[in-house]
What does this fold into?
Amino acid sequence: MRKRLYLITLEVISLNVGQTYNPLPSHLTLMSRFWCDLAPSELAAVVEPLFSRTPPVELTFSQPVQLGPKKVDVHLLEPSEPLKILHHRLHRLLDSVHVTYEYPQFVGEGHKPHVSGRDDDGFTPGYKQMVKAAYLIEVEIKGEEHLRHIRAEFDLKD
It folds into this structure.
């Protein structure tokens, strides 16, 4: 069985299951890239119950900054307990199926919620948005390209 590379995001801009993006539109990375033996449908079955029990999460945007060694433009989010709880529950769930995190420093206590910046995204400090969906994304690396295939969408419980 081959390992697959995944990430899980929360919806900021709607994504379409079955579509491939390079790069992704604005999104919040709920769980940074991880390797897993499970096929997309199997992994989706593992995480779906968590999302179906999770109410929509409100995001409150803070200052734009540049993060990481590549100085990527992002919008920091104000820390919220619901977002922190969701990340930690997902972390425990993924650990139970023995995933390997590509960037473990950004998981658990190292998770720094932010939304990727894109040209003309219009997000300003204080802007609020309700997140009602999460996505399972498989990453395919083809040379310099990192193709993001949207494998599943999970609706958060209203």
User: Anything to note?
Assistant: The helical segments are 40-52, 81-96.
